[in-house]
């Protein structure tokens, strides 16, 4: 009887080790780093292409500025603004007039990123508050050569209606006040989204 018990004990131990191995392997396999998904499993439908047109008001000199320098390099000066970083909360409107209907805000930063020309690194969100886009955002990240007639910058993502967005923004300076630095920029944004 002891011999039979010893034999079954060995078999049971062996089976427990095998089951433990497969259980560990199954646990490891169930934790996914990545996997392929169908867009419909996330509720995504056919992609749309939208065109948005608005005006961006960068107000640096006023009682309540919407663009404010928050950092600069030790070598930053009026004649060499390289290294200056500006935080923005700029209004977006349907017309060039600041008092026209607001559609959102541009919120983020831009930095003077060139030592040789007026080029900015733009990193901000268009936060919309109008119509079906209310509460949705588009994220822009790119180079803005401010004295070029037309600047193209990538739209790298979004949220809300613009989840998984991609596209580009065209910027054209509408007005620039040499005394104050206040600027109005016309934007045409073309974006694919679901």
TrEMBL record:
<dbReference type="GO" id="GO:0048046">
    <property type="term" value="C:apoplast"/>
</dbReference>
<comment type="subunit">
    <text>Homodimer.</text>
</comment>
<dbReference type="Pfam" id="PF03018">
    <property type="entry name" value="Dirigent"/>
</dbReference>
<dbReference type="GO" id="GO:0009699">
    <property type="term" value="P:phenylpropanoid biosynthetic process"/>
</dbReference>
<protein>
    <recommendedName>
        <fullName>Dirigent protein</fullName>
    </recommendedName>
</protein>
<keyword id="KW-0964">Secreted</keyword>
<dbReference type="InterPro" id="IPR044859">
    <property type="entry name" value="Allene_oxi_cyc_Dirigent"/>
</dbReference>
<comment type="function">
    <text>Dirigent proteins impart stereoselectivity on the phenoxy radical-coupling reaction, yielding optically active lignans from two molecules of coniferyl alcohol in the biosynthesis of lignans, flavonolignans, and alkaloids and thus plays a central role in plant secondary metabolism.</text>
</comment>
<comment type="similarity">
    <text>Belongs to the plant dirigent protein family.</text>
</comment>
<keyword id="KW-0052">Apoplast</keyword>
<dbReference type="InterPro" id="IPR004265">
    <property type="entry name" value="Dirigent"/>
</dbReference>
